[in-house]
Write a structure and sequence with these properties.
Chain lengths: ~290, ~350
């Protein structure tokens, strides 16, 4: 029971981080960055490949490379597509996603690569009389810390103020002196770092990294930001969290019908969207701006 | 009267706009299709994709609302048509289908009837889901239709009563020649063109251009979108069914993310505003893929033989998509219908 609750919270937290990464980019440029999946994947690959190095070193390498890749995406591709509309940018991001998957396949091979990352995390400890895995506790701690840091950055710093302003109304924010290119590039960098952290969390649980490793989590995080309320960063993170918790609970309590967990999740998503098209955080009759 | 320029999509019926793409489709299919057996298969696949892209054009192109749900209707069409036409003997004995409902295992209808049923099923399901989904706009609609695809995939992947589950359904009869798929594609082309010049098509494009002005002019946005969604769902069902009769099998993975995004990419690359764009996008993506495949296999193309390492093909296809969008974000045709090239000097 304790394990089930911890699992739910840790999965929710992971999806919240992924959703926050997607939400940051969406906020500043109305881009649903499907290639976020490949940011998570590259982080996981690097962690596996550099497993011989101390964990902290290999994580820093992963974070730097992932952030650089994210910024490169913006500079080389998304910057040139700005203003073409969300549908075109979404398709482009999908193309980029497939492109990167194939590049990974060429570099790392189509078969999964694996390594025991932070093996001490798979041990168990006793908490309140029940044994739980260290990794689930660690995940909860990491996500809480990261969400707090992200919350501080977004709520208390000038960069965060600009990000929030841009998420609400990008045009007005620009008129008020927000430097758009720099802001968007930093949003991508932050989203890259978040993806690296998500990559770390998931690779500890499942070290079998293949080219499509990040796709599943990205899709669910995307679902999360839409049901959470797409125009607020808090809503995005909350939506991701909700999706993770629901999925984890469905997996625990559906028993043999577990294979249909995704069906129930998606049906629930449909219902939420029909009742609240603007997301849970929006007012019932608010029109969407995209 | 001065013609309005830069408008995407058709306004009036014009024989050129309909016959141009139709002729190009026929010539392309026959020229390429009859040159070798493997190319025949490629052309048949291209025709399935074209019907699917047309289905997307009707809804996504005209309404501007992104839909990932059409993969679900194609999946449904494929399962309906595949299960209805696979021989009773195979369905009762195949190891992958021991759980199949007896009533499904014992039924067999002919190919044409099953295609029709697949289209009807696709249309009906799209019509019913559309009643709810069409209330949504923008990204919420995109995610909701994606949820539909997710449910369909999850259901068919795990359910062994209404299909082979994660395995392949064997023994689906294949198209014996090029003419049936070509005829179906032409039929779809004509239907979609007529729909696009009808008042439904025009009002739909009006809602795409301005979703505040359109209702102010008395257009019921939700109603026209529902109609278009149902019709495009029927076409998607047909496309999925055709695909199953080209592949000779039904496998749920074939209609999931890859299929959905490939067909959406074809539409966007060609230009989502017109059937001409749908055709150009489909032929372009298929041709690039085929040429790269032949290079990978070391075959000579026009006497030229370029060796490509394995795996390079997939990279090139994805790169083509990204470059095409960077080069021309509104599609190769700019969303315009077919017209003869105009060499006369433009007077401004």
């Amino acid at each position: 029971m304790v394990q089930a609750i911890l699992d739910a919270i840790s999965l929710g937290g992971t999806y919240a981080l992924a959703a926050l990464g997607l939400g940051l980019v969406f906020g500043v440029m109305r881009l649903v960055n499907f290639a976020h999946a490949e940011l998570i994947t590259i982080s996981a690959y690097i962690l596996v490949v550099t497993n011989d190095l101390p964990l902290i070193v290999s994580f820093i390498i992963a974070a730097v490379v992932t952030a650089l890749l994210a910024v490169a995406m913006e500079l080389l591709i998304y910057r040139r597509l700005r203003g073409t509309g969300p549908a075109i940018m979404l398709i482009a991001s999908f193309g980029l996603s497939v492109l990167l998957q194939r590049v990974y396949e060429l570099i790392f091979g189509a078969l999964p690569k694996s390594a025991a990352i932070a093996p001490w995390m798979s041990g168990e400890v006793k908490v309140a009389g029940a044994s739980v895995t260290i990794s689930s506790i660690a995940t909860v701690v990491i996500t809480v810390v990261i969400l707090l840091i992200a919350g501080y950055l977004i709520e208390r710093t000038s960069l965060g103020l600009q990000l929030r302003a841009a998420a609400i109304d990008f045009k007005t924010a620009r008129l008020l002196g927000v430097r758009s290119n720099r802001l968007i590039a930093s949003a991508f960098a932050m989203s890259g770092v978040l993806a690296a952290i998500v990559g770390f969390i998931v690779v500890v649980e499942n070290p079998q990294v293949s080219p499509m490793y990040g796709v599943n989590i990205t899709i669910l995080a995307l679902v999360g930001i839409v049901i959470g309320g797409i125009s607020s960063l808090r809503g995005s993170a909350l939506g991701g969290f909700i999706v993770g918790v629901i999925l984890s609970l469905l997996n625990t309590f559906l028993g043999n019908a577990r294979v249909y967990a995704y069906s129930w999740l998606f049906l629930l998503v449909l219902i939420i969207l029909l009742v609240r098209p603007g997301g849970i955080m929006s007012k019932a009759n608010e029109m969407e701006r995209v | 009267m001065k013609k309005i320029k830069n408008i995407s999509g058709i306004t009036h019926f014009s024989l050129t706009e309909l016959l141009g793409p139709a002729l190009i489709l026929i010539v392309f299919s026959c020229l390429i299709g009859f040159s070798s057996a493997s190319l025949m298969l490629t052309v048949q696949l291209a025709l399935c994709y074209f019907v699917m892209v047309l289905a997307l054009q009707v809804f996504v192109g005209n309404s501007g609302v992104l839909s990932f749900g059409h993969g679900a209707f194609a999946m449904l069409g494929a399962f309906v048509s595949g299960l209805l036409t696979a021989p009773v003997r195979i369905k009762n004995n195949a190891l992958s289908m021991t759980d199949l409902l007896q009533s499904i295992a014992d039924i067999q209808v002919n190919l044409y009837l099953s295609l029709l049923i697949a289209a009807i099923v696709g249309g009906v399901v799209a019509g019913i889901t559309g009643v709810f989904l069409m209330r949504l706009n923008g990204l919420a609609a995109g995610i909701a239709t994606f949820a539909l695809l997710g449910v369909a995939y999850n259901f068919f992947f795990n359910n062994t009563k209404f299909g082979p589950g994660s395995q392949a359904l064997p023994g689906v009869p294949k198209f014996q020649n090029l003419f049936i798929p070509l005829l179906l594609a032409l039929l779809a082309l004509v239907l979609v063109y007529l729909l696009n010049v009808s008042s439904i098509g025009r009002t739909l494009r009006a809602t795409r251009e301005d979703n505040l002005a359109a209702p102010a002019l008395g257009i019921n946005i939700i109603r026209v979108r529902r109609i278009a969604f149902a019709l495009s769902g029927a076409l998607a069902g047909l496309a999925g069914a055709m695909y199953s009769h080209v592949a000779g099998t039904v496998q749920v993975q074939d209609y999931y993310l890859g299929f959905t995004f490939l067909t959406l990419s074809m539409l966007v690359i060609g230009g989502s505003g017109s059937i001409w764009g749908a055709l150009v996008g489909t032929l372009l993506v298929i041709s690039v893929g085929q040429v790269l495949l032949m290079m990978e296999q070391g075959k000579a193309i026009f006497g030229l033989s370029i060796d490509l390492p394995n795996g390079a093909r997939a990279i090139f296809i994805a790169a083509t998509l990204v470059v095409a969008l960077l080069w021309r974000s509104s599609g190769v045709t700019n969303g315009k219908e077919f017209a003869f090239p105009n060499f006369k000097k433009k007077s401004n």
